[in-house]
Every structure is written in C-alpha cells, then in structure tokens.
Amino acid sequence: MKSILVSLIFICIALFALAQDKGDLSFSLGYNRCNYSMKDAQEYLADPTFFDPMFYSNISFSDIKQGKMYDMELTYQFFKYVDFGLHLNYQGSELTRSFFYQHYPDPITYPDSIQFTFAGLNMIETRSISTGLTGNVLLNKVFHFEDYESKILKRITLVSGIKFLVGMSSMRNQESLTFPVTSEFVRTNLNSTNFNGRAELKIGYRFEKDLFTEIGIKLGYQVHLTAPLENLNRDNLSSPSHNEFRLDFGGFYYGLFLKLGK
User: Fold this and answer.
1) How confident is the model at residue 21, as a pLDDT?
2) For residue 186, what pLDDT is reported?
3) I want to staple 116 with a disulfide (CB 3.0 to 4.6 A). Which of 30, 80, 103, 149 is the partner?
C-alpha cells in the first residue's frame, strides 16, 4: 500500500507541474490524527476465545481507537467558488502487547522433562487505503476575503469539503516469539472493501502570490464502517460472542496540510 501511495504522489506532482500555466490546478498533502470507534475490535481483543487473559497482558483500547492518516488531493478549480478533484488516503492504528506462556508436559509421558516457557509480543494492525472524488467550496472567495484591507485576511483561506471514497481495509494479527527462540507468524489476516465518506473544514495561510505555498489546519469527520472482514477463503472471523467482525474507522480527525498551486 505504501509503495502505491508514493507512486501516486510522484504522478500528482508531475501533473501539477505541467498544469501550472493555467493556474487552476492544486496539489496538497495532509497528516491527521484520528479517533476511531472500533467496537468489534475491542470485543475481539477482550474475547478469551482469541486471547486468554492468563497468557496475554492487559491493554489499553485507546491504542486501537486512535490512529494516523496520510492523505493527498489533486484538485481543479472549475468555477470561482468551487473546485473538484481526486483524493487518496492511507490510515490505520496499531496495538502491541506481550504474552507469556508456560507448558508443563505430562510427567508420566515425559518423566524427565521440565516446563516449557514461551514469551513474545502480539501486534494488531488495522489498515485502510481509500480513493475517490472530492469537492470543495472556497469560503474565503464566497465571503470575498481578498477585498478586505487587512493584509493577513487577504492571505487566509477557508475551505469546506466533502469526499466520496471507496477503499480496502484489513486487520492483521501477528505474533513474534522472543523466547526461547525468535520467530514470527500471522494468526489472522482479514480484508474487506467498502464505501466511505468524509467532511472537513480547512483554514490555511498563503505565503506567495504566484506558485504559492499554503499551510494550514483542518478538522473533519469520517464515516467509515467496513463490510464483515474475511480471510482468503472468504471465512468471517467469528466467536461465541459475535458472528461478524467489522472495522469502524468512523470518528473525528484533525491535522495539518500543505498545498501547492492556485
């Protein structure tokens, strides 16, 4: 996923450089901190069917409910007050906890054996990559900030936007053995496709007049509940406590953005 994201960034930068003569194309990058719901994920992590509390350490659910999002947009200003374009984002969360397991062999079968001790780390990763369409209303142009006498207000941008996206989401449960030997294995690797959407408000400040750079902050909310996750055999993750497992990336987010272009 990361290699795809990097490739698309270079493609967008190239298109942006070629189209700057018209002055209507812009390219932006963003970094966000997200709050997720993740109800099923919390039930999964607390389910003794999957994680026996005798062997796994206690965890904080905040690790799975908080994540990071990286996004980029390539937009074209068709009208004075509105622009449209393409959006891409990559996000997820990560939780790590330790496990400790002692096994006592049957003294009759193995009279000379001693107990076996295993220790390691368990890591839960949730990931999502989404792409789609974005539309923005340039509120600073609607309210004619450029007509005010204040030099600061002339450089302020205020933009509200909405995004309609389709994405691929996954959850990976991996364990790393650290004692008595070092090894790794994947317990579960589940995937899903889904539609999702975002609405956000951005406030920025422009630095240059021509090919200017703009930097700012943003606040938004995303609706992002996946379909039931499945493995390669199209089997759902299930247990006595629940029959379906979904990732819910929905919630508020905030972040920074950097924009190049008109």
Assistant:
1) 41
2) 77
3) 103
